[in-house]
Each structure stands twice: as structure tokens, then as C-alpha cells.
Amino acid sequence: MVKYIVLAVFVIVLNFIHSFFLPSGGVYADGLSYFEIATDLPNPVTDLFPLGYPAMLRGFFEVFGDYFWAAKFLNTTMLVVILLFSYFKRFYFKETVLLMTGKTILFVFSIAISEGLFVFLLYFLLYYLNKILVENRKSYKDVLIASVIMLMMFTVRYSGIYVYLSIGAFSAILFFKEKDRTQIRGMILFLFLSGLGIAGYLLFNHNTFGSFTGENLRGKPEEILPIYIVRDLLGTANAIDPYIGLKPSSNSMASLAVQFVVLLIDVFVFVYFLRYFRKAKETNSYHFHALLWMIAIGYAISLLVSGWFQQIEEMNTRMMAAANVCLFFSFLILYFKYSASDKLIFRVACFFLVFFTLYSLKNPVNYFENRNQIEPQMPKFNQKKYLYNNDRGGADAMTTYYIPIIKKTFQYKHTNNQKGDVKQSIAGTINPKIKWLKYDTIKDKSQVLYTSELILK
């Protein structure tokens, strides 16, 4: 147990300092949108994103006075709470610690995105659904708490509806296949109460903003080209792999070849996980594992399909966070149940923890040094209402890597590490009221702060 406690502490510390070595501190375009919404509270002006994550950011901002630190301490607090809860409640503590070493947890809790809070709530939802399905408890308190958590997940990400629908599909199967009505009654009551809450939030949005989920604010989806369908399918399949999540931005043959190699690994991992899932039928927790797999599959497919009809980013580690967590958690629980030793899984987890850290920080940059350059420049742009990145391309757009063994170099463009993106993220963090623009559509250019006006050496 001691080695898991040490690993848990190491994960927390690593998570906390990780973004200090990213050019923009782990704040990207969506993070700026959440900061902007948070500054408008308690009088929000848009429902393009739900209010749950901005509300949490605003709460931490009131303590720390800066949105970078608000996001940082929110993420760290959630990690600590999960680990302490798991330890003291004896809810799969070893499995939870190893879950933290996977690509999803390390990613979503290291940067300013809503998926961190979404996964945090998902973990507690699984805890209470486990009580209903495994412990077979008749406690209405557990059902009520699970319902509130489900509603909160929807207020953090609208894709929470796919978790809800997946649980609904599982409950329907349970209704027709199982004779024990205790579990079924608990699940039906959960769906009813959380469904009422979700409907209430949608009505609030419609009455306040004139739309249910900001559908009138979303642009038209981009043309569905075969290459994007392939990339989306590859990204969805990668939800299976707990550790490897490479997603090159290039559409070159070399890039696609790498992704197809990753797909082969994903297939192998899926078959391996499936072997353990089949063993779950021998346990009293089979329904819980079936629920985890149903959420993972239902969420992944629903998000994939909806992505083709909405203007959202392609499927990747971030988008598949909930699916990956459910599959990996199920596997870890069953692995510890049926494996005589934990040495292999522990070593694998430690290896990929180090690998992920080195990969994500392959070009470490001092965030605070970047911020110290931008911050003194911002007061003279206080009158600006919009922020647009017009620093694209240029000599520094490509990063050159040297491979010692074969003595070759190659170049790669890191989309979030471009100087214009870095300036945009830092400027938007310092002044969260400024609205970042995807396109330069504002007619009065005097209201726009162009990133080219900011100096970053």
C-alpha cells in the first residue's frame, strides 16, 4: 500500500508543476472562453458552454485573484479529493491511483479545460451507481446523490447527456433481463430525478438565452471529408488505450501510418480488456462493469456521430476522456481481482507516467517568463474588447527534432505552441474579459488587440 501512497503523492506534485513548463501554462482557446464566462457571473450572457465549470473557476478566482491559479488549484484540489475519498472510503484505492497514471487523467487535470471537472464528477457518479448495483442498497440517499451528480455533469459539459442516455440504455437491458427489482427501481428513480434536473437546466437556458445548448451560436460544421472521418474513427478507437494517445495534426502518409500503428495497439488492448470483462460474469459486480462498458461505448459513439453535425474538434484524448476512464477503471478492478501480483501493472503505470511527462514536456518552456513579458504590455490595451491571433506561420512555426541513433532531423508544427497562440492565451488569462476571435470579423479594428502588437521573445 505504501508504494501506492507514494505514487499518488508523486502524481499530485507532477500534475501541479506540469503546466509551469508549457508555453501558455496549459491555457488554450477553450480555457479563455471559460474564463470569459466566469467573469460575467452571476450574470452570464451566453450558453455556448454550460455554467458548471466557469462557476467553479469563479469560486477559486475569488480566493486566488488570477484565473491561471484558479484553474491550477481547482485541478489539484479535485485530484486530492478523489484520492483521499478513495483511500478513506476504501473504494478501489490502488486501482484509482493507477487510473491517475493513465493518459486521460494526466491530461485533463493538467490544463484549463472542463473535462477535468467532468471526469471528477464521473468518478463519484460511478461510486454511487456501484452502491446501487453491487451493494444492492435500497437507500434513496444514494439515488438522490447520484442524480444530483448526473445533473452537475450536464452543467459542466453538454455531452453529459450521452452518459445519461448510456445509463438509460443499460437500465433498459437490466429491466428486461434481471428479475431482481431492487437494482431496477434504483436505476429508474435515478434516471427520473436526473432527467428532471437536466430538463430544468435546458428550460433555464431557453428562457434565459433563447436556446437550449447555444445551438444558435455554433457555426456550421466543416465539410465532412473522408480524411476527417478516418481521423475521427482513429481518435474514437484510441479511447481504448489507457496510455498511448498520439494524435499528429498532419495528414501526411507518415502521420497516418503512425496513427494506424496506434490503432493496431488499440485493437490488441481491446482484446486484452475484453478477456477480463468476460471474467466479470463470475462476480457480483458484473452489472457495474457492464455499466462502465455501456457508458464508454455509448458516450464514444454518440460523441463521434454528433461531431459530424456540430462544429466541435475532432475525436482525441480530450473528447474521449469519459470513455477512456470507464474502460480503464473496469480493467484495473478486474486485473487486481484475478492477477496474483501487481508488479507488472505497477511498473507499466510508472513507465508510462514518466513517458507521458517527457513526451508532453519535450520542449520545456518557462511559462512565468513568457507571462512576465506579456503582462506589462496589457494595461495599454485595456480598451480593447477583442483578441485575435494574426501571428500564424513564420520561421518559428516548425519545431526541429534530432534523432541521435539514426542521425536524422524532422520538423513538426505544434499547433498550441505557436507564438501567436501563446500570446493569445497569456493575454486572455491576464484580461479574461477580452473575447478571443476565431476569425477577424470585427469591422472596427480599433477594438481588436492583434497578437502581433504583443512582444514575446
Automatic annotation (TrEMBL):
The keyword Transmembrane applies. The keyword rRNA-binding does not apply. Keywords: Membrane, Transmembrane, Transmembrane helix. This is Glycosyltransferase RgtA/B/C/D-like domain-containing protein. The chain crosses the membrane at residues 67-85, 105-129, 149-175, 187-204, 256-274, 286-309, 321-338, 344-361.
